Model the fold of this input.
Amino acid sequence: MDARDDNSLMRAVAAGDRGALRALYERHAGFVYRTAYRFLFDPEDARDITQSVFVTVLESAHRYEPCARLTTWLYRIVANRCLNHKSKADRRLRGSAEEQDRLEQLPAPEAEQPDQRLESDRRQARLRAALLRLPRRQRLALVLQRFEGMRYEQIAQILGCSKSSVESMLYRARQALKRDLSE
Amino acid sequence: MWCHRARRLLSAYLDDEIGPRRRALLESHLAGCASCVAELAKLRAQCEVLAEADQAPALPPDLWPRVLAAADESGRRPWLRQHRTRLVQAACVAACALLGFAGGALVSWRTPAVDAASDKVSIGERMLVAETFDTAAFGLSEKKEGLLQCVPR
Done:
């Protein structure tokens, strides 16, 4: 594991050091991949986003000014990539019919297989579909808060808005999820 | 505090993101409002359901080679493609500067000024006299102390 701090690694990346890029990847790729996956629920989309984030890191390294923490800058790139990514899952849900068919094909809990695993899979599919139906910024705020345990202040920095906007986004996201899941 | 206001705060309350004053107001409301307490319980249950969805797979081990290949590809990209945005910005600035310069030159050519600091008669001044006076009757002879001298022909 490379002991250099993030800013030193960025300077080395700007100088063309691929080892430094690897060190940054090992340090932060887990977060990038997890966030992209939880945002889109598609492993291939999550791979695409992770790859594109680190290529952006490489291409922007010479412009990077270490005035803030690298993670804030990196998380902003991740957020932008997620918000602008045209995912397969999203297209399915916006079109809705195909995803609805897929959900309906999952066995119902009261059908002949009262298996707990199937019940849980079905519940998760519904939950994922409900999450994917949320507006993108609300969904990302929820992913960062709920799954990454970020504070509102940090989410506001990443999304480029105020703390009260984050509070409002999370409130609306939870209300929408409540409505969606109770139907 | 009214229920409507209290319910808007429940989400931030669950996330431990409200200040002590709002917290005290909300808790005093919750102490006497069963329906808001029920709403809070629903939100807590929702958090548990969300935790169930948190099954992100581990980082795929074959992803780094893919990132490295993309990084190499990016390094091999032609210089023009890598700096496309900057080049477009620079071209826009240059075009604006050129337009400004051309516009300024056109305006100064159309409205020639008399240069009082010089006794030399410029082309612009000759044009000004030609546009203002009947050149058949008057001719521009010279300039003295910044003033044009027109003499009858």
